[in-house]
Specification:
The protein has 6 helices and 5 strands; from the N terminus they run βαββαβαβααα. By secondary structure, the protein is of the alpha/beta class.
Length: 171
């Protein structure tokens, strides 16, 4: 299963602006996903600085990148418990990136551990595919029907799609 890799990004601007935080950057192997991990042992520092951190990420990193904002992640780690209302407020903010909160994080903020945590949560690297044999009674010609459906937007093809769907659902 794929996992995130350490990204070769210059984080000095973040470190200079927020010296009480520790930062790591990760990316997927094809560079389509970028994740910034931020650690601070004090929840108040996270609550008062998360918007500033995302502002620097938006201006410094996203402004020069063609990836959509939903391919950027900003993960905050702290050993303290954040109020659930603040977690929701941060995670529901749509500016710049998706936000992840790892409060009550009692493990060391080392690069390898954080890489495992983020790979699991962002890429689902802990998921296992269970291949099962499809029972004979469930085999159908649905795939044959679906491959014959016309996809253009002309009225004749739309009528054909409507007829195929009606026959499938029995309408």
């Amino acid at each position: 299963m794929e996992s995130l890799l350490r990204a070769d990004l210059n984080l000095r601007s973040l470190e200079a602006e927020f010296p009480n935080f520790k930062f790591y950057a990760y990316a997927s192997s094809d560079q389509s996903i970028v994740c910034f991990a931020c650690f601070n042992s004090n929840k108040e520092n996270i609550l008062s600085n998360w918007e500033g951190i995302q502002g620097i990420i938006a201006g410094k990193f996203q402004a020069t990148d063609d990836r959509a904002k939903w391919n950027y992640y900003l993960a905050f780690f702290t050993p303290e418990k954040l109020p659930i209302t603040e977690i929701y407020r941060i995670q529901n903010d749509r500016f710049c990136s998706r936000k992840l909160i790892f409060d009550k994080h009692v493990y060391p903020f080392d690069a390898e551990h954080i890489q495992q945590v983020l790979s699991r949560d962002i890429l689902g690297s802990s998921l296992k595919l269970d291949l099962r044999q499809i029972p004979e009674q469930f085999n159908s010609s649905l795939s044959e029907v679906l491959t014959s459906v016309p996809l253009s937007h002309n009225p004749i093809d739309k009528d054909k799609r409507r007829a195929i769907l009606s026959s499938l659902i029995g309408a």
